[in-house]
Amino acid sequence: MSGETVKKFKWFWFDQDVEQEQWLRAMAQQGLHLRKMNALQQWTFVKGTPADITYAVDYNNKRMTPEYRRELENAGWEHVMEYVGWQYWRAGMAKGRAPDIFTGAGNKKAKSKRLLLLSVVGTITLLYIATRRPEYLIQQLSALPGALVLLFAAAALFNVVSAVRLGARLLMPRS
């Protein structure tokens, strides 16, 4: 890898892990290999040789345990980064296939439930503050610059939309 970095902005909802994985794979095929991502979903890539690398995105609301890491590394995955509970893994494609990871229906459903819980808790927290203590919320927001107020509103909307999308995913699973 050349060490030169490229930054891209790309927005994904909580439940778009498959779309993230596909996009990251397409970036690797162009020679852009994930290094990190920040809260504004600015993705930093290292320029390198184009490769058929697949990515796996997992959410776990607990810290990564040594057992979890060892299990995935033994299966052929490399840990790339962690961001607020999100774990990003990559592996080279062998004969057109990636090492198995989170493939069972039970694993996918458990992951969706963890994400739904995160969205619902965030939404309930925001609704509680807005309905029980509106004067506190108004006081706090009025002290912030307009951009931060918009960011707060976007976070609230993000939590509500994510909760609805994840609930639909659990009720009507994708094939």
UniProtKB/TrEMBL annotation:
Residues spanning the membrane: 115-131, 143-168
Pfam families for the chain: DUF2812
Protein keywords: Membrane, Transmembrane, Transmembrane helix
Record-linked InterPro entries: DUF2812
Protein name: DUF2812 domain-containing protein
Source species of the chain: Massilia psychrophila
